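ok here's Methylase involved in ubiquinone/menaquinone biosynthesis:
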Amino acid sequence: MSRAQPASDPSPASHAADAAALAGLRLRCPRCGSAIDTLDCPACGFAIVIDDGIAHALAPESAARHARFIADYERIRAAEGRGSASADFYLALPYHDASGRNRDQWRMRARSYDCIVRQLPQGGRILDLGAGNGWMSFRLALAGYRPTAVDLLGNDRDGLGAARHYRARLPALFARFQAEIRRLPFADAQFDAAVFNASFHYAEDGEACLREALRCVRKGGMVVISDTPWYARDASGRQMLAERREAFLRRHGTAADALASLGYLTDERLQQMAAALSIRWEVHRPWYGLRWALRPFAAKLRGRREPSKFRLYVARKPA
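and the structure:
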């Protein structure tokens, strides 16, 4: 992996540690699927470039297709006050939101994370899909796992660049890849688990993304979907998406629908994916508190659509 470009890494030692984390992975070209020994694809010429510790593995055509989505997403997240200039904010996640802006959401993330960890094999190699600022990879690394963070965003507040805040707390920072989830730059069967961390609902093609995650997982390994909204009725999910588009247009001047994402889960969608991929779902229900549990009853009394539920879905790759 000789094409590493240190850019603004704080020191040669930290850059060497980042390179060592990448060196433990077997890669493949995200454009054509060929195996690559370094960072250059011998078949199509695509090159993964490391900049400030982030391995950029987004092919130009994929980058162009996602450009508007990334721009809208970053603008909306910034307007919502996501991220912080303080390292303390990132180091406390998900158990404490030092900004105070999204405390309820982070409280739920913390309970989901605790449930996720109970499913994972201790010390395993974990693929964190939709890693955002890398908080889950950081927590996993502290707990002795070997995470690899993947996201479309590379910025320093809400994307992979924010992981710089974790560097001083870890012997070596976990590997970070800017990549498309349905075109992952990893060779087959090398992770013990792949976790869609509050990210699966952004998938354009849920089945394709699951298939790609399963490809990267060892036989008997698992794929986990966490913090993606579930509805008993498809009509409720469609109504939620319409309400969100209207709210985004009103607040941010964009519908945030540059990509036709999955948006939510239903039992029917889960069953269709399970049948197509020959998997079975285990369903876990984290406890988010009495107020959250009473939401469906409150919505029914007020004549509103059913609220979303968040569950943990675990599937194992057939041996």
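+1. Confidence is low (pLDDT under 50) at residues 1-9.
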